[in-house]
Design goal:
The structure holds two protein chains of two kinds. Chain A is mostly helical. Chain A contains 14 helices and no strands. Chain A has two domains: about 55 residues, no CATH class; about 230 residues, MetI-like fold. In chain A, about 30% of the residues are buried. In chain B, a hairpin with a 2-residue loop joins strand 8 and strand 9. The chains are: A mainly alpha, B alpha+beta.
Chain lengths: ~300, ~400
């Protein structure tokens, strides 16, 4: 009691009644935050801690009913994943998804934002809603439609190609094309977010800069290169960080479109973690992979934040 | 002192509500077989969907009015993971219908009870009983069995000059070729990564998946089976990929895919799609070097150790696997009875297609009941796909299987 009081020393002029008021306020605060704290501790903090411990054990199927019989095996899980061709393939797939996905996501998001900000004056609200709609639509419904679009035999895409006399490929059956389609789906589904944030960034650029440039005789492209892009740098870096983190954990798009196939070429790390952890129940190994992914995300984020800080 | 303020009371209520919601309480289901009994039954796929409203179940509850059967249906795609998770969370049902390759895991988890000694195992087909056992002990009872045979378009085969069903592997390849050159889009429908289609070929070639707990997947027999299977893809006799939700029945009816290998449930679907019985037929699997072996599947009933009503559960399972229930279930869903005496019923013995399945059941294996089976199956699928899509030679794929499976099962 006294320790607490010294820790949070009351203001010098405080009277006993005020101290009682403080205590009641603190209790009220804790009680209000209790629902969140309970959920956070039980469903987030404890599992995170548990999986950290699991990643150093050989926890697997047999331990499900007797968790404490799992043995500590040090860093063996981490050593194993460096030699697991399936994990390396998943890491490569994730890298492809992140690099192409992030670049395209930002490019498309920026293009849409610029178009909405300056070019399109009619039906602006319709376009805004239209571009943002994929972000809020259900991935399962979207995947059904995309699978139909790219169906090799009766898909719309191949149907259109047919009109021009081109025999369309087996989109989702070809590993390279399947990866491309997943990236396209990821971008289509997420660029609305980038667009909204870019729009906010664009509206924060003072108009006098453009006026000054126009007086100096700059054309539209020069304005974009020398004013819009540099002024959007903080926004761009923020979006890069957020998108990279999101895409490093990509799961839904390949899961509903291809289940990781063909040849496991569209299986990212998160899906391999899921298979190892919940199909085969190698939860020790899966935890080690999840933590590796976590470290990579943390490292990438740190690098990007450094860049962000030095540039602003 | 002033009593707690309004805000405090709201907060306290919220916190309390959270705690009581988190705790919950278990309904007490403890009762003997004589008193009222509620059994939680999990069943999968079509059977799961139809069990609750079935005549078969109605006749059980009519004879045992003190029983309440609560059926929870699961799709096959999630049933396995759901069941394992329920074991880990000690929230198993009393009785569950399981896939024929799951017993290794369930016994490793020490989750299911052994078969009561009063049950006569010899009443059931040996292949089906194998799937309900592990390490020589029976834990469940086969509910229904199924085996895979060759379906083919008789009319198209006649047109292509093939007058009889293929007897050997070579016959199957040449028949597929003739059907394709006869105007069909493909010769046969096979999948790049389906161990259930591929593994029986290993058995037919005289090989096996493992022996004495060690993988035997780099044997010449496995290479031979992989070569035979992947050649269909390399020669363009089958689709190189199938989109999710691919409608095989439709492709069979249109004649695009005039042959495929599948189980008894397809017969009803083909008839329903409107293809006349004179235009198609089923045939015994073609013979490899050693045999013409197929895959035996179906499902088994198990009773969980966590269940409070194990005697009542076994009573239910024994009813579902009794002769009368099996015949009535066959009439409802066309699931093949797992016990031989049910096959003498006129509803089964009068069907010519069923004779093929009955014969094939005499030469049908199931994969070994090891706890790591799901993972082994995925490894086989992966390497089979590489061989079919020409990313690995059959030799390399066999070596890859051997290496990966050895790593999985150890030893």
């Amino acid at each position: 009691m006294s320790a607490q009081q010294t820790l949070v020393a009351p203001a010098p002029r405080a009277r006993p009644a005020a101290r009682r008021g403080w205590l009641r306020e603190a209790l009220t605060g804790w009680l209000f935050s209790a629902p969140f704290l309970l959920i956070f501790i039980v469903f987030l903090a404890l599992p995170i801690l548990a999986s950290a411990i699991l990643s150093f054990t050989d926890f697997s199927l047999g331990n499900l009913v007797d968790p404490f019989s799992a043995r500590f095996i040090g860093l063996s899980n981490y050593a194993k994943l460096l030699h697991d061709p399936n994990f390396l393939q998943a890491a490569l797939t994730t890298t492809i998804f992140v690099v192409f996905g992030t670049v395209l996501n930002l490019a498309v998001g920026l293009a849409a934002a610029v178009a909405l900000n300056r070019g399109i004056s009619r039906f602006r609200a319709v376009f805004r809603v239209g571009y943002y709609l994929p972000v809020v639509s259900s991935i399962v419904a979207v995947a059904v439609i995309w699978r139909f679009l790219f169906n090799a035999d009766f898909g719309v895409v191949n149907g259109v190609l047919q009109i021009f006399g081109i025999k369309g490929p087996d989109w989702l059956g070809n590993p390279t094309l399947a990866v491309a389609i997943i990236v396209a789906l990821m971008v289509w589904r997420n660029f609305g977010n980038a667009m909204i944030i870019f729009l906010a960034g664009l509206q924060g650029i003072p108009n006098d800069l453009y006026e000054a440039a126009r007086i100096d005789g700059a054309n539209r492209w020069q304005e974009f290169r020398s004013i819009t892009l540099p002024m959007l740098k903080p926004t761009t870096l923020l979006l890069t960080v957020v998108t990279t983190i999101g895409f490093l954990q990509v799961f839904e798009e390949p899961f509903v479109m291809t289940q990781g196939g063909p040849l496991n070429k569209t299986r990212p790390i998160s899906m391999y973690v899921y298979q190892q952890g919940f199909n085969f129940f190698h939860q020790g190994y899966a935890s080690a992979m999840a933590y590796t992914l976590f470290v990579v995300i943390a490292a990438v984020t740190l690098i990007q934040f450094r860049l962000l800080r030095s540039e602003t | 002192m002033k009593p707690f303020g309004h805000a405090f009371r709201v907060a306290a209520f919220l916190a309390l509500a959270m705690v009581s919601a988190a705790c919950g309480n278990n309904p007490n289901t403890g009762a003997s077989v004589n008193g009222p009994v509620t059994l939680q039954v999990w069943a999968n796929g079509d059977e799961g969907d139809k069990l609750a409203a079935s005549q078969t179940l109605a006749s059980f509850t009519k004879a045992n009015p003190n029983f309440t059967i609560k059926v929870t249906p699961w799709p096959w795609s999630t049933a396995h993971d759901k069941l394992i998770t329920s074991i880990a969370g000690r929230a198993t049902p009393d009785v569950a219908m399981i896939g024929t390759t799951w017993m290794g895991e369930l016994t490793k988890l020490n989750a299911v009870t052994t078969l009561p000694s009063s049950v006569n195992k010899n009443d059931f087909f040996a292949g089906g009983m194998d799937t309900a056992s592990a390490n020589g002990t029976a834990y469940g009872l086969p509910w229904y069995v199924e085996t895979r045979v060759l379906y083919y378009r008789k009319d198209l085969a006649d047109k292509a000059g093939v007058t009889s069903a293929p007897a050997t592997w070579d016959d199957l390849t040449s028949m597929a070729q003739k059907l394709k050159s006869g105007g069909s889009k493909y010769g046969i429908n096979l999948q790049t990564n389906d161990w259930q289609e591929f593994v029986p070929l290993i058995w037919s070639a005289g090989g096996d998946l493992m022996k004495n707990g060690k993988a035997t997947l780099d044997s010449p027999e496995v290479v031979k089976a992989l070569t035979f299977y992947s050649d269909f893809f390399k020669k363009g006799l089958t689709r190189s990929s199938q989109p999710q939700g691919f409608d095989l029945i439709q492709a069979f009816v249109t004649g695009d895919d005039p042959m495929f290998i599948s189980g008894p449930w397809m017969a009803g679907l083909i008839s329903k799609a409107g293809l006349d019985q004179s235009k198609w037929a089923v045939a015994h699997m073609p013979k490899g070097d050693k045999s013409a072996t197929s895959f035996v599947g179906g499902s088994d009933w198990v009773v969980f150790k966590n269940g409070k009503n194990q005697d009542a559960s076994w009573k239910f399972v024994q009813f579902m696997t009794s002769k009368d229930a099996q015949i009535s279930w066959y009439k409802e869903l066309k699931d093949l009875p797992s016990r031989a005496d049910a096959w003498s019923d006129s509803s089964l013995s009068g069907d010519p297609n069923l004779k093929v399945f009955g014969d094939q059941l005499k030469d049908a294996h199931s994969p070994p009941n090891i706890p790591q089976w799901e993972e082994v199956a995925k490894a086989i699928d992966d390497w089979q796909e590489k061989a079919c899509l020409n990313k690995a030679t059959p030799q390399d794929a066999a070596k890859g299987m051997q290496q990966q499976v050895t790593q999985i099962i150890g030893g």
